[in-house]
Specification:
The protein is an alpha+beta fold. It is 46% helix and 16% strand. The longest helix is centred in the middle third of the chain and has 9 residues.
Length: 87
């Protein structure tokens, strides 16, 4: 993660100590099969709350989704949910 994002208080520092406290956009794509356009739409509609890490020219470089700000995502990573998805 970008040091500038931490300095600007875009992302909290506790995520560096607890890597299980957030989801990155690539993890959501990989495990929940949510592609980038759908992810952006969910953020725009307010169904997901994202922390946006910007690059030097001001466009979004990465989205970070804190678990405590997105409780609906946690249930999809539950082992029971994975079992339902498999069967």
């Amino acid at each position: 993660m970008c040091q500038k994002a931490v300095k600007d208080s875009v992302v909290p520092t506790f995520i560096f100590n607890n890597r299980e406290s957030y989801f990155s956009s690539w993890k959501l794509k990989d495990e929940l099969k949510i592609n980038a356009p759908t992810l952006k739409k969910l953020v725009r509609e307010g169904k997901l709350y994202a922390r946006e890490i910007l690059n030097d020219n001001g466009s979004v470089h990465e989205y970070i989704f804190l678990k405590k700000e997105n409780p609906d995502l946690i249930e999809h990573f539950d082992p029971i949910w994975k079992s339902v998805k498999r069967h």
